[in-house]
Amino acid sequence: MNIKEVITTLLQDGFILVFNQDKLDVVKTAQALIKAGFNNMEVTCRINRPLEKMARLVKELPGFVTGAASLLDSSEAVSAYNRTHPDDPLPSVRQVADAGVSFLVSAANFSDASYKVFAGTIAMIPGCGSVTEIVSQFSKGANLCKVFPAKQLGGAAFIKAIDPAIHKTISLVPTGGTNAANIPDYIAAGVLVLGGSFSMIEAATSKKIIDEQDYDLLADEFKKVKRLINEHRKTKWPDINFEADSLKRISRLTGRNFNLD
């Protein structure tokens, strides 16, 4: 799958699930998402054996768009972590790329070296906390910019405030504290893709899913998220069919540039 197909899938979905549950099966979770209408998921490096889970997902569901998240693009930081966690090391950007993931998501900025190697080949979504970081990372090759931690930065109000300053050109992916209650506000602020975890699901239901390994219930819960996103995107962008329109058309009608020229 090439980078344009990956970005198109993320835009079609409008949502990236952060897989952060060691007690759930990564492939069965992805299959539940597919039933719900989503065709992507990022596997966070904050869980046990993340590299193994990514590689398994890529192998068993080759048509699914698998991402790697919570990357630390710093050899010093990765080495420091791995010295104290030798039995479950943190993978590098190179290692997850070699595992076959289709997009890279970091908590912080990506390095110039990573942009030189991966920009234009693997979709890159750096973590950013300011307008300066967003513009700087985009100028180096970022395709979308993750706003993290979105809730602590001000949520949808923060997006709405900074978007005019970047001339509504760079697509922002708020992650951290996103939920069913604030999805409408984020979409109204111009967000095309949101990042979120299992906190999208009511706590008691989420516990039931995990305790009982109920992947049908998981699919049903994310169908609700998909319907909510579709409903509010239709209101915000009535001339766009996100399920069928081309990346070029979405870019033209939203004014967003995905760094693929």
Provide an overview of this structure.
The protein is of the alpha/beta class. The chain has one domain (3-254): TIM Barrel. It is built from 13 helices and 9 strands. A 6-stranded parallel β-sheet has the order 5-4-3-2-1-9, sandwiched between helices. Strands 6-7-8 form a 3-stranded parallel β-sheet. Strand 2, helix 3 (50-60) and strand 3 form a beta-alpha-beta unit. Helix 2 packs across helix 12 (215-236). The chain is globular, with a radius of gyration of 17 Å. 41% of the residues are buried. The mean pLDDT is 97.
Number of E strands: 9
Number of domains: 1
CATH C-level label: Alpha Beta
Number of helices: 13
Describe the sheet with the most strands: 6 strands, parallel
Q: What would CATH call the homologous superfamily?
A: Aldolase class I
Evaluate the radius of gyration.
17 Å
Task: Note the topology.
Blueprint lengths: L2 H11 L1 E5 L6 H11 L3 E5 L5 H11 L4 E7 L3 H10 L8 H6 L4 E4 L5 H7 L4 E3 L1 E2 L2 H10 L4 E3 L2 H4 L1 H8 L9 E3 L8 H6 L5 E3 L6 H10 L2 H22 L10 H8 L7
Parallel strand pairs: 1-2, 1-9, 2-3, 3-4, 4-5, 6-7, 7-8
